[in-house]
Every structure is written in C-alpha cells, then in structure tokens.
C-alpha cells in the first residue's frame, strides 16, 4: 500500500479547501437564479423544492439523476485528462457525437449476434469513433502547431454535420438519405432502434432505466485516477501540463504524451456517446447532441479536474438536469433557468478571482486550476 | 542616525507558513537616502519579509509603519499607493507585451476610458533619462536582455513614484557589467533620497554598495554590521553561525580518459541566429573544465546541445566514446550516465507545483525502485526524498511541500541534490550556485570537487569568474560562439581571462602587454 505522497500531512485541510471554490460557485449561482425567478414574479422556494423532488424525491427521481450523471462523468473526465496535460479539449461534444454514431451503426447491424459480444463491439465502436476525433487535434498540434482549441471547435461542427447526415431523411428533391436513416421514420431524420442484443443490461426495476453504464463509469473513474496519479504515464502527462520545458529536460516524450492524452480524452467522450446510445436512447437522432460535451467543461472545472471531484460535480449537474422538468411542472418556472444556473457555475469556477474577491481570500491559500498553457507546436 | 525619521519601520513581524516560521519578531528600520543590505541564508525569510512589506503576504503578527504611521496592506496596490516598489527575485513582467504596456499594467495613469500610451512612454523616457535607465519604451519585453528587463522593473516602480525600493537578489541574474550599471543606478537613487533594501548572496556586493547591513538567520534578525568595518568572512560567519571557507580546498587533478568530446559543434539560438560556430572541447574523467565568458556568448546553447535539448546543426558530440550528436535528453542521461544542473531552474530544473519529493525523481521516475512497471512507487520516492533533503540540507517543512514555495536558494539545492545523487560519469553544471548562500556554495563546491575526485568529468559553466577560477582545472573561454582559448588553471590570471572574454585573441595578448 504505497501512496505516501498523497498521505501527506494536512491532506484533509487541503481537501476541504479545494471544496471552497466549487461550493461557493454553486451557492452563488443558485442565489442568482433565485433572484432572477423572484424578479419575474416566481417563487424560487417552490421552484427549488420542485427541482429537489425531481432530482432526489423518490427512487425513480434518483435513478434519473444517476442516469444523467453518467455521460457527464465521461465528458468531464475527457476534459479533465486533457487539462492535466495543459490541453483544452473543447471537442468533447464532437467526440461524443462520433462515439454515438459509431455505436449506433454497430447497434443496428449484426442481427443474431450474442448480446455480450454485440454490446462490447458497439462500445468498442464508440471508443474508436471518439479516439479518432481526439487524435486529430493531438496530431495536428504536434506536427503543425495548430492550437487544439481551434481544431476541436472546428471538429465539433464537422462531427455535428457528419452525424446529422448519417440519419438524414433525404430531400423532397430526391437527395439520397443517410446510411443510418430509418426508412420507417418517413420524413423524420433518425436511425432505427438498435437491436435488443446491443442494449446495455438494465438493473433494478426496468422502469428506472438504470443501465450498466453506471458501473462502467465508476470503473473508468478509478482507472483514470490510477492512470493520472499512480502511473509513470500520468506523471508524464502532469509534468507536460505543468512545465513543458521541465518535461523535455526530464527526457519525457512531450509529443507522444500530447497525442496519447488527446486520444484518451477522445475515447472517454466517445464512450459517453456509446453508452447514451446503448443504455438510454437506443437510437440516434441529431438532437441527442453534444450538450453533455460542453457540460463536461463545467463539470471538469467544478470537480477541480480530479476524477473523484468530477463524480460529485457530475452528480450535481445530473441532478439539475433531472429535476428541471419537475421544477417547471410545479412552479411554472421555465426549465431554461437551469441552463442559466449551470452557465453561472461555469463562469464562477472559470474565474476564481471573482470568488476570491467576493470572499477576500488570500492568494496563497487558494489553488487555481490553470486552464490552458499556450505553446507553439513542433515541440518534442 | 536617530536624528532622522525612518521612512519604513518593521516592528515585531512574525509570519508563519504551514510548518515554518518564516519570520520571527523581525525589527527593521529604513531611512531615506540609504541602501540597506539584507543578508541571510537560503530560507532565512528575506523574500517573505519583503513580500510582507510589499503587501503580498499578510503578517501573522506585528506592525508595519510607513512615514511614522501604522499601515495595513491588503495587496501590492496598497503598498504602491504608499510609495513602495519591489523588484522580485523572479521577474513579474509579461514577456509578450511592450515596456509601456508592462509599466501601465495595473497603474492608475489611465485618462478616461482610453489608454494614453504616448503619455506613459514620455514619462518612461523622463524617468529613464533622470536615472540613466536606458530602455526603449516600445520594445517587447521578451526580446530584452535580462539586465534591461530588470531596468524595466525598476522603472515600473519609479513610475508609480516609489520612495522605498525593494530589490530582491537583483544581481543574481546579471552579468558583471550589468551589475556595475545597476550599482550606478542605485547610487543615483540613493542620492535622490530614495530608500533601498538590497538583498544579495554576494558579500562583496553588500560591502561595496550598502550603507548598513542587517543579517537574518532562521527568520530572526541576528545582527547588524557596518560595511566600513565588516569583512566577507565576518559576514559569512554571522549569516551561517559558523566559520565558512570562502575558497574550496582541492588537490591536483588526475585526469583519466576523455569522457565528453565535442568537435566543431554548431547550433542556432531561439531566433535562428548562429550561436555555436564550431566549438571543440574535451573533458576528461577526473577533471573540471570551466567555461568562462560573458553571458550570451553561446554557453546556454552549448549546454543545451550537450544535454540533448537543442539540436546541433553541425559537428559531433561523443560521450564515453558513443556518438550522442542526435541523442535525446533521456538517452544522454541514461546511456551517457550524465547529469545536468540547468542554468534556468524555473524553466527547466523543476516543476513548482509538484511536491519536493516528485522533483527529486523528475528524471528517474520511470526506473526502479521509483516505478515498478507502470506504477509509481510513492514509498520509494518518499524515502529517497527524505534522504536527499537531509543530505543536501534542503530547508523545507516537509518532502510534501510544493517546490515552488521553497526559498529561491533551496530550490536550487533541490536541483543540485537530484542531479548529484545519481551514479554518473559526466556532470554538466550551469551556474550551479546561482542564488545560493555562502554556506551552501561551500557545500556545493565541495561536492563538485568530490565528484571530480571520484573520476567524474565535470563541465562547469559559470558567468562568475570567481567560481570558475576557484573550481576549474582547465578554463575554456567562450566568445561569440567559439572557444577562444583553453588555459590550465595555473596560467589563467584574471587579466588574461578578462582579455579573452572581451574577445581579444590569445596571439594578441603579448601585444597587449601580457606574457605568461
Ligand atoms: N508561499 C509560501 N508557502 C509556504 N512556505 C513558504 C512560502 N514562501 C516561503 N516559504 C518558506 O518560508 C521560508 C523563508 O523563505 P524565503 O523565500 O523568505 O527565504 P529567503 O531568505 O528569501 O531565501 P533565498 O535566499 O533562498 O531566496 C522558507 O522555509 C520557505 O520554504
Ligand atoms: Mg528569496
């Protein structure tokens, strides 16, 4: 049992301190949300009570929260792993979509394949889809110096258009439909349902739709934690992210590390897409798109880019998503306020100085996540 | 001196960091028109005290008075408003911005909603000519030599009308010429009535420029000295609490086979200009080859090429007979069994956000016992760290402390400890004692000589002639990307080296009236 460096003194204190910023960000965002509701003549108390019962009120609500949490864990990890290497992966949305499309393609094919094999193959397809979409910005950065932020943003558009095309219903003027389109859906652009054999197993009451992806998510969290904090590869990733020159000095393969990290980031987001398809949606339609990809950025920052923090952050965001409908139903406040609150959380975690000023904290007692270091390409 | 009013009084200041008392009931007075030299070992609390005066840290206890009035500062903004300026041990300029923009950053001379760049540039020029601090206001900071960057820092402080100027180890990054320039500026400022606190580890410098010397040890003021009567030895003893040998003792070298061999090496600098123009040299096992020269004559690039950090554009590099011209840094450390104390410890030598323990395995983390297969062995890393911290006297609250929070000199000791603790045949040390206190210099110099005596080949690059002369068995002088001459240490007089460093070819020395 060797984790001496993490068992360092004052660890609890540092842990509690690391909660300071996220908790403050959430409380302030909720408070601003409340003020907004109140200003428009709604009762924030009723709204938040609705939100609460929609997210935690009964077993079904809780299951909904957990279900919403799963993809956020993956995309949050995707963004966080890239952060560790000093890379800003805005591309989780596109990687997610590529994972979705690839898993759908496998899921609607191969009738008669045994379920375990079919599920694994579909998941693997999602992994490959995300991997490709993650490797492209990594390779472009290393070989041409193209900044990953620009490349991933562009790839998000490419992925959205590509994914849309695969289920395109065809035009009235005879444009041919996409390869994954379901002809029985007539004018609707969507894929057919995936085969039973490709669906993730459900547990508890099937009505809760709690799928095996939850377990996979937790396993991946532990794996990523191990990779980042307990392996030489993780040490290299973190060193590259913290001090590029020191990484070169120490003999690390910087270019390889950048490509590897973006590959992992892509795989994680791609897995999110595959799991959503095989566990929740059972088909692909363009509107099952990449909001979770973007929410991954907030979740990663809110979770302080630590795998376990990300689970907490994803749980919170999952709860907000899960409770939104109930809130609207009970209080009449439009669900969209939830997205406003989520955006405010992002604003506060991304701009820690704001919080620091609000609470007059001293710089030395405050750890800041560096978002992205700028460095030219061709390194290593 | 009590007839004058102190402009700054530090009363009973205590500062506690987790695990360290950095300042313990410190008293200090500063008078207008004086230069106060502040001495102390690495980690004695000098920078911490200055950061408190500059409003960066809040003291745990105690009081600061400026012009007789007690003040509370929440940030450097408050300190600046009180007329306090500081030039940090590590510069705080934004490299990609111009001098004007850097000076304007965070200061209040913004008229209306728009920035008035011309007005600021004019004031910069006014200040520059008044204190003879030449600088082009529109130059981009990253293009400027270190000495000029420092001038920008001083201008920034003077622009904000500082009467109290804190200079934290300003000379450790400067060439001797630049240091002379800085001293002239400091003298001028003193005569204009400014009060200056000057921190340095070079005893010669305080004796030369300071009006009064205060010594800190382990967070406490242990005494005051008068530069008129104090000597280097007495100051050193006061700082460290024991006698310090200011000159290393070493016997004659017994050189063995050639370990490092460089032939016709060529390379370009970051701007793509030729920096090495055919460098050839050899270092044998059991000898110290010192590379002397004015900073910027290709020494940095030479070390980078030898350590695999910069590609050679021509020539050959061999370590123990193996061709290493295109080798990676990892191959050079592994196969070449070499180690490297880098010139710029912040850029290369360490990861400030990592704990001390990780920094001590920065380039061996993948080897057993620090890793088994893929997994990092934290226990072994911690064990190793505890041993080195004790052996090299790195003053740190624990091995888990962030390396970036160590004092400047202790960061350097950390790097030295890591590099010296591996079994090696080649030691490449660039500025190994930059920012280190006299006691630790003694220790590191002894270590270098010990390595030599164990048969290690040592390439020592230093801009300090004293260091080169104290350690080297042979001395190579670099000038404009070439080795002008290599002299045995016995023949290397200050004058000869000085001429070579100025680019005068060895054949011309007799003409210049020197003979051997
Ligand atoms: N931000 C910080 N957090 C924790 N400890 C700190 C911090 N800054 C300094 N220390 C500790 O306080 C002590 C004094 O450090 P300081 O930087 O003031 O030394 P110094 O006299 O300037 O040394 P040097 O000559 O090496 O620059 C050291 O033990 C250092 O580890
Ligand atoms: Mg210091």
Textual characterization of the structure:
The complex is a heterodimer of chains A (380) and B (516). Chain A has 380 residues and is mainly alpha-helical. Chain A has a single domain, classed as ABC transporter involved in vitamin B12 uptake, BtuC (Orthogonal Bundle). Helices cover 67% and strands 1% of the residues of chain A. In chain A, strands 1-2 form a two-stranded antiparallel sheet. Chain B has 516 residues and is an alpha/beta fold. In chain B, helix 6 (176-191) links the parallel strand 7 and strand 8 (195-199). The longest helix of chain B has 16 residues, at 176-191. Chain B is globular. Chain B starts with 7 loop residues before the first strand and ends in a 15-residue tail after the last helix. Chains A and B meet through helix 8 and helix 9 of A and helix 10, helix 11, strand 18 and helix 13 of B. The structure holds adenosine-5'-triphosphate and magnesium ion. Adenosine-5'-triphosphate is lined by residues 17, 20, 22, 40, 42-48, 89, 395-396, 405-410 of chain B.
Which strand order does the major sheet of chain B show?
6-7-8-3-9-10
Helix and strand succession of chain A? HHHHHHEEHHHHHHHH
**Main beta sheet strand tally, sense and closure of chain B:** 6 strands, mixed
Any idea what the CATH architecture of the largest domain in chain B is? Answer: 3-Layer(aba) Sandwich
Radius of gyration of chain B: 24 Å
Could you give the distance between the termini of chain A? 35 Å
Q: What small ligands are held by the chains? A: adenosine-5'-triphosphate, magnesium ion
- Can you give the helix content of chain A as a percent range? 55-70%
- Structural class by secondary-structure content of chain A: mainly alpha
User: Per CATH, what is the topology of the largest domain in chain B?
Assistant: Rossmann fold
How many helices of chain A?
Answer: 14
**CATH class descriptor of the largest domain in chain B:** Alpha Beta
Give the helix/strand class of chain B.
alpha/beta
Looking at the chains present, what oligomeric state does this protein adopt? heterodimer
């Amino acid at each position: 049992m060797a984790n001496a460096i993490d068992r360092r003194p004052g660890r609890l204190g540092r842990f509690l301190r690391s909660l300071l910023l996220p908790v403050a960000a959430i409380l302030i965002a909720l408070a601003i949300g409340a003020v907004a509701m109140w200003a428009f003549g709604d009762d924030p108390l009723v709204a938040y009570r609705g939100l609460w019962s929609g997210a935690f009120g009964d077993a079904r609500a809780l299951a909904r929260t957990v279900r919403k949490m799963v993809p956020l864990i993956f995309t949050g990890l995707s963004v966080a792993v890239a952060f560790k290497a000093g890379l800003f992966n805005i591309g989780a949305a596109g990687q997610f979509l590529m994972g979705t499309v690839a898993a759908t393609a496998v899921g609607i094919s191969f009738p008669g394949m045994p379920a375990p094999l079919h599920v694994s193959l579909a998941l693997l397809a999602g992994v490959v889809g995300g991997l490709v979409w993650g490797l492209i910005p990594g390779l472009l950065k290393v070989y041409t110096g193209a900044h990953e932020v620009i490349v991933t943003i562009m790839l998000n558009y490419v992925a959205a258009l590509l994914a849309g095309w695969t289920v395109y219903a065809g035009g009235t003027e005879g444009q041919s439909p996409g390869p994954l389109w379901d002809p029985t859906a007539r004018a609707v652009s969507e894929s057919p349902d995936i085969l039973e054999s490709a669906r993730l197993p459900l547990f508890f009451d099937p009505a809760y739709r709690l799928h095996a992806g939850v377990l996979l998510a937790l396993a991946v969290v532990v794996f990523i934690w191990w990779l980042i904090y307990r392996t030489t590869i993780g040490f290299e990733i973190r060193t590259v992210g913290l001090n590029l020159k020191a990484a070169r000095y120490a003999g690390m393969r910087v270019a390889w590390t950048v490509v590897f990290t973006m590959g992992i980031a892509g795989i994680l987001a791609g897995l999110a897409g595959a799991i959503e398809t095989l566990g929740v949606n059972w088909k692909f339609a363009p509107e099952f798109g990449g909001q979770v990809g973007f929410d991954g950025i907030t979740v990663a920052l809110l979770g302080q880019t630590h795998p376990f923090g990300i689970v907490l952050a994803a749980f919170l965001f999952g709860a907000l998503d899960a409770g939104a409908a109930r809130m609207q139903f009970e209080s009449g406040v439009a669900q969209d306020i939830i997205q406003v609150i989520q955006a405010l959380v992002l604003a506060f975690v991304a701009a820690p100085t704001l919080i620091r000023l609000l609470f007059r904290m001293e710089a030395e007692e405050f750890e800041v996540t560096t978002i992205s270091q700028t460095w030219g390409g061709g390194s290593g | 001196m009590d007839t004058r009013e102190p402009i700054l009084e530090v009363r009973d200041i205590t500062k506690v960091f987790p695990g360290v008392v950095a300042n313990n009931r410190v008293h200090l007075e500063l008078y207008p028109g004086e230069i106060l030299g502040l001495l102390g070992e690495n980690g004695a609390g000098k920078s911490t005290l200055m950061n408190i005066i500059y409003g960066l840290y809040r003291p745990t206890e105690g009081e600061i008075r400026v012009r007789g009035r007690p003040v509370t500062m929440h940030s450097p903004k408050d300190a600046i408003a009180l007329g306090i300026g500081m030039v940090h041990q590590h510069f705080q300029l934004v490299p990609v911005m111009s001098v004007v923009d850097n000076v304007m950053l965070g200061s209040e001379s913004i008229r209306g909603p728009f920035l008035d760049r011309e007005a600021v540039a004019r004031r910069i020029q006014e200040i520059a000519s008044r204190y003879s601090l030449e600088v082009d206001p529109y130059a981009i900071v990253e293009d400027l030599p270190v000495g000029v960057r420092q001038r920008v820092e001083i201008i920034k402080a003077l622009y904000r009308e500082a009467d109290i100027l804190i200079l934290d180890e300003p000379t450790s990054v400067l060439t001797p010429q630049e240091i002379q320039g800085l001293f002239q500026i400091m003298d001028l400022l003193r005569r204009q009535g400014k009060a200056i606190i000057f921190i340095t580890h070079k005893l010669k410098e305080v004796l030369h420029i300071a009006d009064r010397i205060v010594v800190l040890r382990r967070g406490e003021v242990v005494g005051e000295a008068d530069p008129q009567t104090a000597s280097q030895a007495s100051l050193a003893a006061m700082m460290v609490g024991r006698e310090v040998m200011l000159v290393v003792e070493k016997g004659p070298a017994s050189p063995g086979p050639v370990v490092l061999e460089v032939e016709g090496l060529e390379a370009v600098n970051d701007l793509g200009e030729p920096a090495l123009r055919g460098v050839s040299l050899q270092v044998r096992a059991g000898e110290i080859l010192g590379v002397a020269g004015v900073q910027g004559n290709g020494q940095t690039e030479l070390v980078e090429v030898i350590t695999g950090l910069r590609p050679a554009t021509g020539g050959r590099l061999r370590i123990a007979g193996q061709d290493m011209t295109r080798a990676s840094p990892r191959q050079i450390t592994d196969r070449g069994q070499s180690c490297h104390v880098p010139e710029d410890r912040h850029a290369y030598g360490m990861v400030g956000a990592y704990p001390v323990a990780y920094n001590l395995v920065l380039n061996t983390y993948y080897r057993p016992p620090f890793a088994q297969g893929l997994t990092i062995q934290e226990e072994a890393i911690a064990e190793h760290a505890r041993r080195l911290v004790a052996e090299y006297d790195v003053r740190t609250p624990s091995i888990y402390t962030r390396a970036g929070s160590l004092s400047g000199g202790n960061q350097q000791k950390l790097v030295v400890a890591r590099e010296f603790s591996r079994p090696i045949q080649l030691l490449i040390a660039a500025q190994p004692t930059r920012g280190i206190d006299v006691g630790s210099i003694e220790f590191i110099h002894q270590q270098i000589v010990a390595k030599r005596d164990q048969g290690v080949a040592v390439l020592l690059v230093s801009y300090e002639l004293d260091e080169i002369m104290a350690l080297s068995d042979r001395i190579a002088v670099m000038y404009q990307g070439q080795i002008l001459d290599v002299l045995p240490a016995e023949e290397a007089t200050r004058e000869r080296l000085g001429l070579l460093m100025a680019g005068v070819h060895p054949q011309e020395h007799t003409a210049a009236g020197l003979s051997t």
